[in-house]
Amino acid sequence: MKTLDIIALLLVVIGAVNWGLIGFFEFDLVSSLLGGMYSAASRVVFALVGLAGLYAISFFGRDRTISKDQSR
Known about the structure:
membrane, transmembrane helix, mainly alpha
């Protein structure tokens, strides 16, 4: 995988875990770690998670089959 793909997937997982915590326990982990929902650091993380989610949409259109030339 490309480095950008790995970073995007990591951010999407962080976002998914955070939303799961919000849904199940009403606890926002990102905000609590970074100083509140409206702190600059939290807003940057939320923005990066959103961009990573949009980028991850491109994963659906990719061909993931391995040809004989690539498997060597």
